[in-house]
Amino acid sequence: MAPRSRCTICQDPRRAEIEQDLVRGAGLRPTAAKYPGVSRFALQRHQKHLDRVIIQAHQAGEVLRADGLLGELRGITDRARGLLARAERAGDLRGAATAIRECRGCLELLARLSGELQSNPVVNIAIAPEWTALRGRILVALEPYSDARGAVVKALSEGSTEEVGNAAR
Ligand SMILES: [Zn+2]
């Protein structure tokens, strides 16, 4: 694996910690600031390896590590759902819009990782309706608040190229 050996993060002894932070959605900038000698650029480049590592670990039968990361991501998704419910109850529309963004980012990443891990398109199909149902519920709940609904619709239509790290912040 010649290309990967040039990645400083792959070779960094703090790699596991760094990856945990990235998966938790710490964001590139804060993560780079946390680890001396780690640049934002290096983290950005390593993010591709992170996905690949999860896939390869699974394929190699090392499911513990990959499942740990997926489990972490599921935990974050649940927390985001909890935040959404709380924001809805409190009538905190900005908070709800943020939580929706976070849910969406998590579910997208989960769908992508699960699909790739199991190389089974059924997984993607199984996760997509979950998101569709959530989105429907959100939009119905926001019907009386046209401003917030507009903001949410806008947030939902934003490109999926958005960094996962940002989505979780
Ligand atoms: Zn790397």
Could you please describe the fold and organization of this structure?
It is a single chain. The chain is an all-alpha fold. The protein has nine helices and no strands. The protein has one domain. Helix content is 78%, strand content 0%. The two termini are 33 Å apart. The structure holds zinc ion. The site of zinc ion has 6 residues, from α4.
What's the gist of this structure?
The chain is built from nine helices and no strands.
Structural class: mainly alpha
Order of helices and strands: HHHHHHHHH
Quaternary assembly? single chain
Average of per-residue pLDDT values: 73
Question: Span from first to last CA?
Answer: 33 Å
Using only CA atoms, what is the Rg? 17 Å
* Bound molecule kinds, no repeats: zinc ion
The number of helical elements comes to 9
Q: Ranges with pLDDT <50 over ≥5 residues? A: 120-127, 159-169
Number of domains: 1
What is the general shape? elongated
The largest sheet, given as strand count, sense and whether it forms a barrel, is:
none
Helical residue percent band: over 70%
Topology:
Elements: H1 2-5, H2 15-23, H3 28-34, H4 40-59, H5 63-90, H6 93-118, H7 121-141, H8 146-157, H9 164-167
Helix pairs in contact: 3-4, 4-5, 5-6, 6-7, 6-8
Bound molecules: zinc ion.
Keywords:
169 residues; mainly alpha; binds zinc ion
